[in-house]
User: Which sequence fits this backbone?
């Protein structure tokens, strides 16, 4: 099937709101620290969206070839897009699209490397490993959640601030930890519905390695650390006091927290999966907007 819809499917287009939220947060932190440029922020956004799309595409191809996506019970938040199993796009076409997205992301990295220099090298290396190694290496070695938390969380926020003028301020560093924890949690909770298919497909994520109860508890602890850290960062002056408002979206996680502590052995409620996504986006955007407002 030709057209844009299958391409958006394998790229998991709704999930590409995450890099937008991360760039808002990182750019807000940069502005609060006195360094913000629209042109560099837009290029960073393009690059991060392209890299996130590439990760999603490579993951879809691998899960299709390993049979994982043929067994999952799909939700809007887990189980793959279903594009390849439905025959809407060939794996070869998806691979070409993924390579193009990875190349676009790499091009933005080279652009910023010329502008910023060596401080950007560690982020580029970790980003490359996360994109190219996530599906067939990191997600099969118990490192998928950490890689996602770094590449599409903490390092994305810090990197957005870094490319503005070559340094990362205290606010950007402080905002990076919640971003890491939330992306870590975003992936972790979404792994519960795919537990059986992931086990058969050879994945080794934290749900499979730890078991449902410890993994659910880990998700809950990481979630509660987000507002706790924002309060600590504000108390030490790394973030402004008004940044505490960015902790309020954590209240949305009530369905997930109830499930994690009481009903962890049952299916994750659809409302918990949904609020897990909204919490992530809302917290990053709200924190970024607060920092922009006070810049």
Assistant:
């Amino acid at each position: 099937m030709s057209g844009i819809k299958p391409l958006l499917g394998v790229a998991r287009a709704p999930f590409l709101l995450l890099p937008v939220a991360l760039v808002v947060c990182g750019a807000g932190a940069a502005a609060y620290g006195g360094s913000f440029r629209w042109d560099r922020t837009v290029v960073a956004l393009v690059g991060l969206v392209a890299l996130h799309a590439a990760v999603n595409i490579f993951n879809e191809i691998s899960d299709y070839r390993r049979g994982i996506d043929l067994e999952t019970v799909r939700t809007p938040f887990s189980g793959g897009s279903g594009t390849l199993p439905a025959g809407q796009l060939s794996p070869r076409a998806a691979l070409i699209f993924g390579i193009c997205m990875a190349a676009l992301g790499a091009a933005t990295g080279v652009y910023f490397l010329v502008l910023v220099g060596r401080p950007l090298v560690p982020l580029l290396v970790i980003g490359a490993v996360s994109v190219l190694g996530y599906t067939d290496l990191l997600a099969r070695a118990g490192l998928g959640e950490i890689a996602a938390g770094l590449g599409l969380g903490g390092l994305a926020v810090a990197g957005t601030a870094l490319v503005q003028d070559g340094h990362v301020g205290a606010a950007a560093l402080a905002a990076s930890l919640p971003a890491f924890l939330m992306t870590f949690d975003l992936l972790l909770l979404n792994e519960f519905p795919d537990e059986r298919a992931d086990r058969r497909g050879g994945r080794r994520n934290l749900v499979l390695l730890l078991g449902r109860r410890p993994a659910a508890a880990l998700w809950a602890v990481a979630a509660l650390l987000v507002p706790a850290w924002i309060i600590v960062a504000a108390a030490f002056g790394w973030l402004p006091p008004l940044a505490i408002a960015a902790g309020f979206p954590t209240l949305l996680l009530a369905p997930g927290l109830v499930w994690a502590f009481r009903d962890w052995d049952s299916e994750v409620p659809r409302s918990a999966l949904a609020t897990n996504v909204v919490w992530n986006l809302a917290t990053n955007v709200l924190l970024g907007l607060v920092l922009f407002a006070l810049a």
Summary: The chain has a mean pLDDT of 91. The chain has one domain: 4-293.
